[in-house]
């Protein structure tokens, strides 16, 4: 099974990114986490992304705040899917959202919500599941569990409304 790389622009992104760690662990997907900066260590980021496929990765998650160019720099140097997680730092995260989502033609970055590391992990799992039936089955189970959870809440609400 391919693994997922999680790249943070700073260690201050770790509290948000931990949601991705937990989600990948839940699905049994191996991952590596690193700190690299699009601005402070651009050569390191480029070198990592150039070698990511050969190093067994199937998707890369990049989390960065402010002028969040990390996902774009990584995407420029790989053919693997890159998922950007804009981190709320200034301007309620709008700056990092726009920096992540506004990529030039030919350099796509899938972007999730501000601080949406958990969804980034699920999207990475969905990408890996395209060629892994076991992961696809785990995803289906999780979707069914979400439906069951909502139905139980609805049942509880209706029961409470009837007793009033």
Structural commentary:
The chain has helices at 14-27, 42-51, 70-76, 94-101, 117-129, 133-162; strands spanning 3-8, 31-35, 57-65, 82-87, 110-111. By secondary structure, it is α/β, with parallel strands linked by helices. It has two domains: 3-131, Rossmann fold (3-Layer(aba) Sandwich), CATH 3.40.50.1970; 133-164. It has a five-stranded parallel β-sheet with strand order 2-1-3-4-5, with helices on both faces. It is globular. The N and C termini lie far apart (53 Å).
Task: Give the tags.
about 160 residues, alpha/beta, Rossmann fold, 2 domains, five-stranded parallel β-sheet, 6 helices, 5 strands, about 50% helix
């Amino acid at each position: 099974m391919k693994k997922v790389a999680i790249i943070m622009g700073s260690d201050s992104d770790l509290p948000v990114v931990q949601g991705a760690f937990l989600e990948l662990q839940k699905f049994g997907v191996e991952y590596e986490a690193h700190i690299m900066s699009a601005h402070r260590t651009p050569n390191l980021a480029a070198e990592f992304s150039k070698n990511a496929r050969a190093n067994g990765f199937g998707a890369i998650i990049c989390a960065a705040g402010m002028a969040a160019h990390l996902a774009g720099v990584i995407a420029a140097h790989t053919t693997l899917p890159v998922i950007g997680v804009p981190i709320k730092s200034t301007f309620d995260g709008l700056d990092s959202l726009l920096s992540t989502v506004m990529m030039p033609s030919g350099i796509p970055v899938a972007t999730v919500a501000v601080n949406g590391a958990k969804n980034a992990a699920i999207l990475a799992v969905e990408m890996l599941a395209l060629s892994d039936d076991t992961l696809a089955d785990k995803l289906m189970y999780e979707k069914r569990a979400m439906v069951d959870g909502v139905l139980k809440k609805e049942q509880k609400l209706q029961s409470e409304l009837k007793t009033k």
